[in-house]
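Page 42, continued from yesterday. The earlier attempt failed because a stray header line got pasted into the input along with the sequence. Redoing it now with the clean sequence only.
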Amino acid sequence: MVTDKTIENYTKIYRKALTDRHFSEIETEIDAYRKRLAEMYASEDFKKFCNYPSTNTVHVYAVIAMCLGLKRYDLSDREIIDTINSGFSVRKNFFRRLLRFIDRLPIAYHIAEKWNISDHDKRVMDGSLTYDYFNVTDGKIEYCISKCVYIEMFELYGIRSLCKIFCMTDTSSYENLPKHVEFIRYSDLSDGSCCHDVILAKQN
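This time it went through. Structure tokens are written below.
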């Protein structure tokens, strides 16, 4: 359920992002963001996308609203993604520390394997992702995704390429499991025809 508090929480994150990157006229953009996000949450498309339990549509829409605001500053995709990530730095640092702790465990790869299998099962169940294949063998996971509801949400607002901010979460996560996991991304749907990833157990 979306509340005024939800909008204000994301507004604070966006304010931090704008402040960290020294943008001008921050208050004007913050007011516009608050209004923009409220309108997006009230849309029929938002209600439709909320039908995927494995996808945090509230969060995705909040990020899309930030992207739309930053597009007005004539920034590159890379600059927009870096700006938004700075706003979420507290949350990202928490998960980074958690993953670094997991990487100290001898069962780190098996934990990552269970995450992937569980996520796959949830995505297939609610239809948020379409897998061409999902193969799990000893020490290796390989999959190809040809349809993704995250892409559909970004594409609806004409900013498909900026969905890479979510595609990149896999890469950044596995970077924090360097002792036990090797992650290879051949392509993703933000700028390609499929998301093709390989996850390998490192031999220590």
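Notes: The longest strand covers residues 129-137.
Reminder to self: strip header lines before submitting.
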